[in-house]
């Protein structure tokens, strides 16, 4: 669940009730649409010819296209990086072309414009927001089922549970359903029972806690290293403690693209499944890959990758998406008419299951425990 989507906010502002609903919708949709005129994505290989119609008969497969354009916005895609290094993409006859996007909104607008094919590192709440506004997207796999998203407070703060946020100021947006949804489950009205301090910059959120302007802040995974270096801040909890398996990042694409490229989707998922299997047995090597990709040191990535709350899983986790959708409906975070949308029409688990079955047929003996666990996960969360 990325929480960097309100980059247009220029001033600190307390929000609540109807004002909050209006604010959130305008941030994610109206302003984003305007900003998309100025924000775009740039391919890491712009000089390459468009291969979207290239035949892959020379490799003896039936891919609809042998190139998938994957959007990135200042973050790494661990599965794809491993799949490249280990040759899993080559085995499938696939090339994944990275398209660098300035931010989340730019990535979704580039998806709508046909400049990218697949998004992965852009949360669950934002694609749901677009679906709720009428955009025809399909979620067909997962990435992080839970990020390492800390909830922080001043040192010495006692934490009894998410209900401690009631009557307090929280530097976060209410669309972070891992927090607001948990409050709903406990019978609270998050939009009115909590003061939400809207700050796009997560460093500003930390400073708000330090100054006493906010009692708590919810931070992104990438802030873990900074927080662990601060003597006056405590991590009182994590989003995944508040809402287990909350669904951090899903993999989505335009429904039309998914429907027109099922074999390519399955090939991509087979490569990424094998990458997850490798990742789980090679955590140290994976940290080095991520550090290299982000051009940072391993201490930075180890701060979250070594944490138990950081959990990667390619499974779609359909039930977690459905729960998130339900939370956001109850919070009135969608445009009018979203209640008529069947979110299951925008979740495709069949392609993932086909890819999993094919991997089990070919690679089960390489790591039976891994593939048995992935099948059990599918049967529990995707039926």
From TrEMBL:
Q: What is its main location?
A: periplasm
Pfam families named among the record's database cross-references? NMT1 (PF09084)
Q: Which residues form a coiled coil?
A: none
Look up the domain of life of the source: Bacteria
Q: What keyword terms does UniProt attach to this protein?
A: Signal
Q: Where found in the cell?
A: Periplasm
SsuA/THI5-like domain ranges (all copies): 77-284
Question: According to its record, what are the GO cellular component terms?
Answer: periplasmic space
Q: Which InterPro entries match?
A: SsuA/THI5
Q: Does the keyword Nucleotide-binding apply?
A: no
Keyword Membrane attached: no
Entry-linked PANTHER family: ALIPHATIC SULFONATES-BINDING PROTEIN-RELATED (PTHR30024), TAURINE-BINDING PERIPLASMIC PROTEIN (PTHR30024:SF47)
Family affiliation: Belongs to the bacterial solute-binding protein SsuA/TauA family.
Q: What is this protein called?
A: ABC transporter substrate-binding protein
Its source organism is Dorea formicigenerans
């Amino acid at each position: 669940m990325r929480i960097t989507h309100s980059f247009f906010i220029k001033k600190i502002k307390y929000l609540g009730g109807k004002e909050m609903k209006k604010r959130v919708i305008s941030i994610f949709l109206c302003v984003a649409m305007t900003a998309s005129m100025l924000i775009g994505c740039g391919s890491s290989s712009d000089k390459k010819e468009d291969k979207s119609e290239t035949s892959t008969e020379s490799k003896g497969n039936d891919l609809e296209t042998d190139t998938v354009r994957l959007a990135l916005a200042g973050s790494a895609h661990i599965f794809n990086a491993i799949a490249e290094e280990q040759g899993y993409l080559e085995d499938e006859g696939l090339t994944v072309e990275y398209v660098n996007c300035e931010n989340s909104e730019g990535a979704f607008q580039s998806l709508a414009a046909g400049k990218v094919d697949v998004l992965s590192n852009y949360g669950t709440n934002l694609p749901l927001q677009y679906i709720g506004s009428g955009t025809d997207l399909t979620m067909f796999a997962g990435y992080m089922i839970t990020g390492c998203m800390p909830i922080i407070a001043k040192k010495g703060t006692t934490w009894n549970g998410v209900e401690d946020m009631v009557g307090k100021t929280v530097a976060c947006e209410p669309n972070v359903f891992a927090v607001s949804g948990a409050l709903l489950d406990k019978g609270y009205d998050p939009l009115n029972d909590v003061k939400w301090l809207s700050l796009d910059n997560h460093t500003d959120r930390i400073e708000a806690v330090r100054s006493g302007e906010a009692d708590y802040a919810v931070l992104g995974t990438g802030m873990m290293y900074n927080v662990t270096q601060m003597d006056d801040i405590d991590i009182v909890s994590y989003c995944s403690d508040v809402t287990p398996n909350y669904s951090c990042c899903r993999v989505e694409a335009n429904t039309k693209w998914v429907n027109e490229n099922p074999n390519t989707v399955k090939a991509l998922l087979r490569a990424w499944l094998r990458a997850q299997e490798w990742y789980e047995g090679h955590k140290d090597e994976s940290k080095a890959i991520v550090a290299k990709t982000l051009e940072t040191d391993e201490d930075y990535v180890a701060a979250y990758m070594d944490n138990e709350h950081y959990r990667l899983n390619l499974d779609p986790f359909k039930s977690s998406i459905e729960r998130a959708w339900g939370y956001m409906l109850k919070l009135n975070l969608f445009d009018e008419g979203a209640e008529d949308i069947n979110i299951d029409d925008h979740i495709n688990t069949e392609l993932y299951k086909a890819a999993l079955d094919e991997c089990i047929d070919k690679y089960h003996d390489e790591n039976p425990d891994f593939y048995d666990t992935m099948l059990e996960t599918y049967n529990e969360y995707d039926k």
